Write the structure tokens for this entry.
Amino acid sequence: MKKRILAGMRAVARPHLGNYLGAGKGMVQLQERAEYETFYMVADLHTLTTPYDKDYLAGLTKDVVMDYLAMGLDPEKSVLFVQSHVPQHTELAYLLSTVTTVAKMSHLPTYKEKIKEYPQHSTMALLNYPVLMAADILIYKAEKVPVGVDQEPHLEIAREIARRMNADYGTDFPEPKMFGTKGAYVPSLLGEGKMSKSVGGSYIALTDDLQMISAKLAKAPTDAGGPGEVPITGPVANLFKFLELFLPNRLEYYGEAYRQGKLRYAELKEELARAIYGEIRPIQERREQFKSKSEMVDEIIHEGARKAKEAAGKTLQEVKEKMGLLV
Ligand code: TYM
């Protein structure tokens, strides 16, 4: 039997460069390998754990599916679906929550960050976020999960839940591992933290044109440009991280310029903007084609749900039996 892969993105906004490099690229890579069966969803239920606009959610969910297609995901090779269309995920999440303590969930850094950001939204759904994510993965018995490093604490929870279920009920869940790409951590343009949908100015959208990318990079903080060693943290280190990702053959040149105190950030940023645009332009071109193919996309989503339900239903049935429910 083929090994399984599962990944997803929330529908809080259209995916940005960090989502593409950290997750999207890995999703595409794994889809191309014959030894894997790949399941990729839009995590619309996870989107409900922080404030969202109900008038836009459905449209945004479909947009993310179209962005997946534009990134190179192929419905002939991957099962592309919407999380809420496969109710087995939430059902398994409930079963998994019986082996998960409240203390463990409430001490997770990702949970603490979110309640700091949205103090009015410390909900049960938010507390349960990692359990639903564990269910997303375990319901396909996925072994690898292409995600950015920020999701590692959630994968650790999924592994703990898998171990506990296997020990207590004799299930055979594999312990899912992160599949990281070299862009597993894409920094913010603002000089601090990671590129994030919820921080305006921190990200490059996959829809940005060259002018927009240049304008955003122009605002990225810098320093005097040397002389000295290239900083290993902070805004300048972030710009060098972008060089590493997009212009690895220019790292030495700019590193040397910095050491000699001759680095011209305008030159670096312009070159970087062109390289980034070069990488995302093909995605934008493909995305254009799907705009007029709304019905085809609906069909892909429908077919994806059918295939995902079939696989998910089997695991759920097994787990119910093992947990002693009357089936
Ligand atoms: P989300 O929507 O926040 O992010 C989608 C993916 O993008 C990655 N990512 C980044 N990677 C590198 N650098 C960055 N700056 C950056 N920002 C975001 C994230 O790591 C993620 O892989 N919990 C998930 C959604 C989810 C999921 C799952 C993922 C729900 N169930 C099951 C995998 C498996 C999330 O919030 O993604």
